[in-house]
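Researcher: We're teaching a course module on how sequence relates to structure. For the next exercise, students receive a sequence and then see the predicted structure as tokens, so they can try to spot secondary structure elements on their own. Here is the exercise chain.
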Amino acid sequence: MSLYNEESRRLQDRFDTRRLADRIEERIVHDEIDDGDRAFIEARDMFFIATVDEQGQPQCSYKGGDPGFVRVLDRQTIAFPVYDGNGMYLTAGNLLATKKVGLLFIDLEGRKRMRLNGTASVDEKDPLLPEYPEAQLVVRVHATEVFPNCPRYIHEYKLVARSRFVPKSECETPVPQWKHNEWAVDVLPEQDPANDPSREVIPRG
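Model: And here is the predicted structure for the students to work with:
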């Protein structure tokens, strides 16, 4: 199955890029994660994830963690945790509903990026779950297309600090201030850490 749909082809023909697009698909797009891909993915501390529901309604989300929070399990499978969020579960819900997923990994300092598209599964009893402190679920993605993107429009950024909200086994995760706001405090889950008055509360980290 080609990477391109009819509208992609129409635009390629309009701007005379069909030959280039075919060459990219032939030479660059692959369905396995090679050693270079593995090194790039496992060095990242963030990525963007796109999903769709049964009606084709899209969602796009940012996921962050410490480097290595996305693991390459084999040449076609990656895994990453789902941490506590805002309780909407838009991404995880879409993954359960349609399994379709597209991930964009970006190295903002090195100005490189990679796309990984595939089919996802979500498991709250995944054997990897204990290896991710405070994770609620583990997502595994079976890769169908893996390819780099042209980096020319990536702005160069420098890391200042990683979020303090990323769970770690050696310390207690702080509570975000918004969970103490009037609109949220009475509808939090019973076991939410924000209900513990001893927890540190910070606006962001």
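Model: If you want an answer key for the exercise: The chain has five helices and nine strands. The beta strands are 46-52, 58-64, 71-74, 77-82, 100-107, 112-123, 137-148, 175-176, 201-202.
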